[in-house]
TrEMBL record:
Source organism per UniProt: Spirosoma terrae
Domain (Transglycosylase SLT) ranges: 108-203
InterPro entries from the UniProt entry: Lysozyme-like_dom_sf, Transglycosylase_SLT_dom_1
Cited Pfam families: SLT
Official protein name in the record: Lytic transglycosylase domain-containing protein
Top-level taxonomic group: Bacteria
Family: Belongs to the transglycosylase Slt family.
Amino acid sequence: MNVVVSIPLLVGLIISAIQPASFLQSTSAHSIGPESANYFFIPNLTPVLPPVYFCGESVPLHEEAVARRLVSALVTNTHKNQALYRIRQRAATFFPVIEPILARHRIPSDFKYLPLVESALTGLAVSPKGAAGYWQFMPETARELGLTIRRGQDDRQNLVKSTEAACRYLNYLYARLGSWTLAAAAYNNGIGALLGNIKRQQQWDYYYLRLNAETGKYLYRILAFKELFSNYRSYGNIIPSQALAYLSQPIDSESFSEDDDVILPEILVDEATESAIQSSNQEVRVASSNRVDDIPLPNAADVFKGGIKAKLMHFSGLQRGQVWTFHLTRDGFAGEQDVEEGDVLYAIVEDIDSQTGKLYLRTDKLYSAGDKHTYHLTLAAVDASTGRVGIKLPEVDQLKAGWILTWKAL
């Protein structure tokens, strides 16, 4: 996402002076040890780097700048060996949950490494700007993707639900951009900002775009985790021997280090991990039997298609958890459900965000006045002009019978 959690593991290296071109001529690739501080400045890194791919797209390592960025990311990610080992532990636990969800949504499996960069696969991670969870969603984006955020429940910390939401978002980005590398960049920088750079530079290749420092390094950080976890033996001339030992060490879920420099206190990480595993097993089985649905996505009013109207009949107070009653004003279609005039929505005040001036109303059930039956149907009140979840926070005296809102299915 736009703000990445600060992880001690990913502290950048300070690159030293450029090594002359004659260095490569006088020193063979096999004699270059990891202790060589100026390794990054060998004019041609291609002979010592294996082919690298992201989602089937070849990384142009023949370009010197691209090769240097990848090598820098590889060495940076091995700077904290124990932290790297702990991330491997969490990956070994969570990848079996994430991978089938990615496959069901037809997302390349390489995206399982994205939450390593975003949160070190820690559900309790929170960025300074409020992005939270494994996939680091901002609150508004999370709600747009169908996640619930309210007191006592934050779906961003639910591994299955947040991964499902990330897949919907990534599919949307890929449909707009036509490239998984650009989709990854847009996940970090936002699709609007990325499209602005593409338009100004007339360049559709991530590796040749001039981007802000964070987004410019973002894909390389993902690639570094992929290569270190799946192909570390090919980088013996780059990675320090101690880091290679940690990468080859068998995973021991019972092994914890007091010196491990992680984002959160160890006991909180362990509790969150255990909770994620327990909740994930059942949810994966349930989700695998459901059809993958597309929903309107954040910052995309152009994909909002209509909505249904409902009129406020009973207002019980402007506080979280209060239930308001709405009646539909006309026949319509919400999700896959036919709805009729007079059907009843019992909406919960999910959140009141005073900072953005937004009110969030949500309902999970619709009562059919015609057949006297209650249907499971998740709806959210939206801004009628954009289709975005959340409405302008009204004055209390405006909340009275007859107030009409637009709703969309999530």
